[in-house]
Design a protein that fits this description.
With about 160 residues, this protein is α+β, with helices and mostly antiparallel strands. It has helices at about 1-15, 30, 40-50, 80-90, 100-125; strands at about 20, 30-35, 55-60, 70-75, 140-145, 155. Strand 5 and strand 6 form a beta hairpin.
Amino acid sequence: MLKSKAPVTSHEYGDRYTMIGPLSYKTAPLEVETLEPDTPELRLTLESMKERGVKFLYGRWLIEGAPKVLLFDTGSVYHKLDEWKGDLWNVAGIPSPPNDHETNEAILFGYLVAWFLGEVSKNKSNCYFIGLLICKSTTRMLGVKKESRKPQWKITRG
């Protein structure tokens, strides 16, 4: 789905379009051309996150339309998993099963994206950047859904 929509969206938004996803060290070296961040806001944001241990890859996805991509290494923030699971419980009352890899990855990636969006919006005001920040998720993004028959929560594909 993403590969099919990327050319149209890249054509419409040009270099203002950046896709965000999880980093796979197996495929990224073959599919992504590494670039330096091209705006002060992005550079400041990624430097700040890197100083706090977040690993990422920024570049161009080598597909039709060549969209920019920002790929986060969820493993680099695995030490924050318990804190972020606790936050989900304390703020929203959403429990998460222990040792569920898919749930853990969804939580780590979601919090990384939220962290990134918060940092970039803070930095855009510091840099007197005037623009619009839009975040759209795909139907394949993971979500948390309560089972109707059991009092448990599970990760489902929306």
